[in-house]
Write a structure and sequence with these properties.
The protein is globular, with a radius of gyration of 16 Å. With 177 residues, the chain is mainly alpha-helical. The protein has a three-stranded antiparallel sheet, sandwiched between helices. The chain has one domain. Helix 2 crosses helix 6.
Length: 177
């Protein structure tokens, strides 16, 4: 499991400003943007109060969210899903990413003494057979690092420099399109 940093009061304020509500079930910060704010939060698989929460890596960097939303709007997910059926190496790497995601979630579940059977075997983003949510896949790729989630890595490459120090203080990047 990738390591994560303590979720501070400052991190909580940043996350709340991005989401419009307090984050629940946060284990820690799994990825920080260059300016130091949280970009991906690691979350426990069960929220306080009981409901399961399958999103282990929650993408909250506003610039990354915007860049991923633009990719999703372009229709790239259908192309990526099609590539999984024609590229056996990619399909296998994506299956391994699915297993890594499940392993990470299981480690977080152990931290809270829970197995969360309701979501056992289900990862995120459509893994292992399709591409459904690039936000989840990019969050996984940023948290785990390059080479773990090939679709998340591909999306990151397509996003370019979404989180430079100049734009990562919570401001949206501008678009000239």
């Amino acid at each position: 499991m990738p390591s994560y940093e303590t979720f501070t009061d400052s991190d909580a304020a940043f996350a709340q400003a991005q989401l419009g509500r307090p984050m629940r079930g946060v284990a820690g910060v799994a990825y920080r943007c260059p300016a130091g704010h949280p970009g991906v939060l690691a979350t426990y698989p069960r929220l306080p109060g009981g409901p399961p929460f399958p999103t282990t890596y929650y993408l909250i960097c506003p610039n990354a969210v915007l860049a991923v939303s633009r990719l999703e709007a372009s229709g790239i997910m259908a192309e990526m899903t099609a590539k999984l059926s024609t590229d056996p190496g990619l399909a296998e790497a994506y299956r391994v990413a699915h297993e890594a995601y499940l392993s990470d979630r299981e480690a977080l579940a152990r931290e809270i003494g829970d197995e969360v059977p309701e979501i056992a075997g289900f990862s995120a983003g459509g893994m292992p057979t399709r591409v459904k949510c690039l936000h989840a896949l990019v969050g996984h790729a940023l948290a785990a690092g390059p080479g773990v989630n090939p679709i998340g890595d591909e999306a990151l490459a397509l996003m370019g420099d979404f989180c430079s120090e100049a734009t990562s203080a919570g401001e949206e990047t501008s678009s000239d399109d």
